[in-house]
Amino acid sequence: MKKRRFAAVLLGLMAAVGLTGCGEEVSTEEEIPVFSTVFTDDNKPTDIIVENEHLKLTMDPETTYFEIKDKSSGAVWYSNPTDVSKDPLAGGDTKNFIQSTMLVEYMNDIGVGAVLNNYKYSIVDSFFEIESGADYITVNYTIGSPDKLFIIPTAITLEELDGYLALMDSKDARKIKENYKKYDINKLSKSDEENKDELLKLYPDLANQVLYILRDTVQDYLKADMQTKFEAIGYTFADYERHMADTGAVNSKPQFNIPMTIRLDKEDMLVEVPIPAMEWKEEYKLNNISLLPMFGAGGVDDEGYMIVPDGTGALIEFNNGKQNQSAFQTDIFGYDYGMKREAMIQDNRAAFGAYAISNNNDSVLCIIEEGKPFAHVKADVSGRGHSYNVAYSTFDIMKDEEVEPSYKSFQSIIMFDDNIPTDTITQRYKFIDGDNYNDVALEYRDYMIEEYTLEALENENGIPFYMDLIGAVNMTKQVWGVPRSVLVPLTSIEEAEKVTAEIKESVDNLSVIYTGALDGGVNQAFIHRPEVLDELGGKKEFEKFALAAEVPIYLNAKLQSTYGGKGFSMNKDVSRHITREYTERSPFSIVWYGEKSWSGTSYNITPEAQVEGMEKVAEVANKAGIAGISLEDVGNMLLADYDPKKASHRGQTIDTTVNAMQNISAKENIDIITNGGFEYVLGGSDTILNMDLAGNKFSIVDYQIPFYTMALKGNVNYTGTAINLSGDFEQEFLRSIENGAGLLFTFMDESITSLKNTNYTYLYAAEYELIKERALDYYNRYNSQLGHTANMPIVHHERVQPNVFATTYEDGTTVYVNYSNNDVTIDGNVVKAVDFFVERG
User: Fold this and answer.
1) Residue burial 506-524, b: 16+ Cβ < 10 Å; e: rest
2) Handedness of CA 664, 666, 670, 674 (dihedral sign)
3) Strand partners, 576
């Protein structure tokens, strides 16, 4: 293809730009430019270079591919592999994927969509414009199917066409005129009459005048020849733009304009994609985008690994031969249960928004700074369609749901959400000299300390022991021969006092969480006027317990969902789906994966109602004189509200929640415990319970590492799942030791037999009298050997051999954890099967 002058040209095409939300259209008529760059052979563009004292960014202006050089190490990272042509596996769309810097997924109004790679649909035809500054390069991509840019009239009146043709050689003029077809709206052929509406949509001015329109069958080489002849008689781009505007010509194909900026920020590289600057047509909705899917990719001859956000971190070795397993994919902050979900096979949820690639002797850490609430991380190994190991992120832009307009209709319609995030998607790339994942983890630790203003813990009382006491549960019982729902105490306040006193004799660093103490018990009712249940002893007894216990006590509450109750209003308090339906949820079956509606239905609460509930429970805690509150479902679930009257996408929900936590903690002078460990809670909580230390056990993963906990250790208290409810006491205990976590146990004073044939059998191992000695044995052994490391950072971790890991603390203390069923010997020390061994520093 002949290259022309090096310049950026914008082709103004009229199209309806709109964000169709929930059946309503919010649209305006705006120009969507087609970004296009053209070159000449005699003025070949030179590389665009931006650099500072740490990094050098070099971009090829003909492809937008770039490389980034870390000046301190000499390492060079590439946006795309440089040897794609040699890949024996890649072909067709896969090869296009490898040569892409961005992917877009879209859908039309009837639910038909596709994934477009920006190699085939942008880079090949130079549909982009580049601008640069002192510290950045911005590429404005047009991705989709805009007509290839030829500076020739696509629609023109006969008078103007004859005027141009008169200036040409008669033979050339005759050939060019044959490429146009005359259209008179009042004298259409039978076939054209059938497409009359489409013609008027593409060429609105056809309703007012006769036009000669370029035939669809004219091939590109003929258009290029026409362009040469039109240029020779002085036809300019300004003439082209005028004809497009005069005739109202419209490109009706999918088109997405997305700017991507690569910016140097001291030692880091930022990739920024501002959502408000994106453009697309009303009839083609932008579902999601993927950024730099091949950045840092490792080939079959490279050595390295990827760290992905599963559990506390998971490591996938390059070329591990697991290409027949499912590729890795996870949702940052889990599934959005503001959206409908009919089945759950696997609940992929990532607590933190970061991943890393180590390629040969260097590593890069990618931190998702903005856009985490609607981000996903994907990773795969070589052998599945191509020869590269990759990790990258995808971001949801516009969400949709199906709805059946009536029971009589067999056709569903697609409704789209118009509360689109206004973030600038930002990924920060940190370059590390070395291939040890500990260096990557410690780099992430430094970032997290600064980002969330984390402060070192000061409690010197050893390993934290968290005791979750189950107050009351709701059961159906016969009352005077009539089945009624009644609250049944499992641990009264008096019994809680006794249990706390006993455990406190053996544990110095004890904290108590009281669960199921508010209206509704464990299946908590809507927070209206919260008080400690009379069935457990009531408000006065709870205050006496708080005063006598001499340990921190936290009142547990659920904020994000409810089963109803006093003061509850569906219209006011329940969030909605995109389809306007109320958000209802039931537990999912682990057997057939669908919802178990007979197990009860809960409703998602709006962010505003959640804050009101938090304030009310915090006030109760303050008046009782206890240490604080525990928010059971904050940090392990993040919901959006798609009600257009009070819409809150997940990023807005985070802002609402964290601001409330900070304000309430200061106002009521209380501490707040959260559960699950989603990264954003670090802005308002320094204690996290029930972190996922095990991960989802993806088959493609080689082993778990404490990547996230290395970033938190010494600044945040955290635990894994309650040891006695984990399904495997020993494995969860060992995971806690490997990760430097505190211990969590769930107790109830009542016998487990009282829960037979109820929905609470998951508390099978919570009976205090049966579990207490084992719990104290675990704690005493852990604390006696590693209590001095309770607030100490982890500085090193390694897999010594399969299923055997070593964690090293700041003072040199190393704990070896053996998950295998065989004893192992390490440096002359025997680590027994399913056990640990401590070597003091």
Assistant:
1) ebebbbbbbbbbbbbbbbb
2) positive
3) 582
Closest CA to 668 of 534, 555, 765: 555
* Category of 567 on φ-ψ map: left (φ > 0), alpha (ψ -120 to 50) or beta: left
State residue 146's pLDDT score. Answer: 66
pLDDT score, position 206:
86
User: Which residues make Cβ contacts (< 8 Å) with residue 433, sequence separation at least 6?
Assistant: 70, 72, 73, 75, 362, 439
Please return the burial class of 250, using the count of CB atoms within 10 Å of its CB with bins 0-12, 13-18 and 19+: middle
Backbone angles phi, psi at 298, to 5 degrees: -105, 140
pTM: 0.87
User: How far apart (Å, rounded) are the C-alpha atoms in residues 511 and 672?
Assistant: 12
For the packed helices 493-504 and 768-786, what is the interaxial angle rounded to 10 degrees? 30
Closest CA to 697 of 314, 300, 124, 421: 314
Contacts of 416 (CB under 8 A, 6+ apart): 19, 20, 21, 22, 285, 398, 399, 400, 578
Phi, psi of 228 (to 5 degrees): -60, -45
- The alpha carbon of residue 806 and the mean position of all alpha carbons in its chain are separated, in whole angstroms, by 30
Enumerate the β-bridge partners of residue 349.
Answer: 331
Residue 535 phi, psi (nearest 5):
-60, -20
At 33 the three-state DSSP class reads strand
The DSSP secondary-structure symbol of 564 reads -
- Reported as type and span, the H/E element at residue 211 is strand 211-214
Q: Give me 157's structure tokens.
A: 């009146």
Gyration radius from the chain CA atoms:
32
Q: Would you call 355 helix, strand, or coil by DSSP?
A: strand
Query: What does the alpha-carbon distance between residue 755 and residue 760 come to, in Å, rounded to a whole number?
Result: 6
Two tokens at 566? 């006093």
| Residue 320 CB coordination number (10 Å) | 17
CA nearest to 201, candidates 245, 153, 252, 255 = 252
- The closest of 196, 292, 212, 284 to 247, measured between CA atoms, is 212
- Structure-token pair, residue 636: 């392990």
429 forms beta bridges with: 269, 366
Instruction: Tell me what pLDDT residue 221 has.
Output: 85
Positions in the chain whose pLDDT score sits under 50 = 1-29
The rounded distance, in Å, linking the Cα atoms of 642 and 277 is 23
**Rounded distance between C-alpha atoms, residue 70 and residue 77, angstroms:** 8
Count of alpha carbons within 13 angstroms of residue 429, beta-carbon side:
29
Q: Read out DSSP for 17-66?
A: EEEEETTEEEEEEEEEEEEEEE--GGGPPPPEEEE-SSEEEEE-TTT--E
- Asked if residues 295 and 77 have their Cβ atoms less than 8 Å apart, the reply is yes
Q: How many angstroms from the chain centroid is the CA of residue 231?
A: 50
Residue 335, SS3? coil
Could you tell me which residues come within 8 angstroms of residue 828 by beta carbon, excluding any fewer than 6 positions away? none
Q: Please, are residues 662 and 611 in contact by the beta-carbon 8 Å criterion?
A: no
Tokens 């050595």 sit on residue: 303
- Contacts of 361 by beta carbon, 8 Å cutoff, 6+ apart: 75, 434, 435
745/782 Cα distance (integer angstroms): 14
List pLDDT tens digits, range 549-564: 999 999 999 999 999 9
Decide if 14 contacts 250 (C-beta within 8 A): yes
Q: Cα separation of 22 and 419, whole Å? A: 10
Which residues, other chains included, contact 114 with Cβ-Cβ below 8 Å and sequence gap of 6+? Answer: 105, 106, 254
Alpha carbon of residue 568 to chain centroid = 31
